[in-house]
């Protein structure tokens, strides 16, 4: 794991965000500032890849929205198996 990703995970634990499932492995993440971002996941060769619509995500950096949405994605994937 990169330091960037570790920081993102730590930040996602501190900040209360709500996550709503939009279907097709897309999640709407709402921050306390009421910013809305869409996180989308796909699995390639057993690895999960996520993309976020925020500024960091657009640059290909790990943001704190991703780990939050990943928790919900994991729960949904587990339930549907
Ligand atoms: Zn983001």
Strand proportion: 25-35%
Please tell me the overall pLDDT.
94
Strands of the biggest beta sheet: in what spatial order? 1-2-3-4
Distinct small molecules: zinc ion
Helix/strand/pairing class, anyone? alpha+beta
Radius of gyration: 12 Å
Query: How many distinct helices?
Result: 3
Contiguous uncertain segments of 5+ residues:
none
Q: Mind describing the biggest β-sheet? A: 4 strands, antiparallel
Overall morphology = globular
Question: What is the strand tally?
Answer: 4
Distance linking N and C termini:
27 Å
Residue share in helix: 25-40%
Order of helices and strands: HEEEEHH
Concise structural overview:
This protein is of the alpha+beta class.
Keywords:
81 residues; alpha+beta; 3 helices; 4 strands; globular; binds zinc ion
Question: How would you summarize the topology of this molecule?
Answer:
Elements: H1 3-14, E1 18-23, E2 26-30, E3 36-44, E4 47-52, H2 55-58, H3 65-80
Antiparallel strand pairs: 1-2, 2-3, 3-4
Helix pairs in contact: 1-3
The structure holds zinc ion.
What does this structure look like?
By secondary structure, the protein is an alpha+beta fold. Helices cover 40% and strands 32% of the residues. The protein is globular, with a radius of gyration of 12 Å. Zinc ion is lined by residues 37, 52, 54, 56-57, 63, 65. Zinc ion (ZN) binds at residues 37, 52, 54, 56-57, 63, 65.
């Amino acid at each position: 794991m990169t330091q960037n990703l570790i920081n993102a995970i730590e930040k996602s634990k501190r900040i209360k965000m709500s996550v709503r499932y939009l279907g097709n492995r897309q999640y709407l993440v709402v921050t306390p500032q009421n910013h809305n971002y869409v996180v989308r996941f796909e699995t390639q060769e057993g690895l999960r890849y996520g993309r976020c619509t925020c500024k960091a995500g657009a640059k290909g950096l790990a943001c704190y929205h991703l780990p939050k949405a990943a928790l919900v994605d994991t729960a949904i994937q587990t339930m549907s198996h």
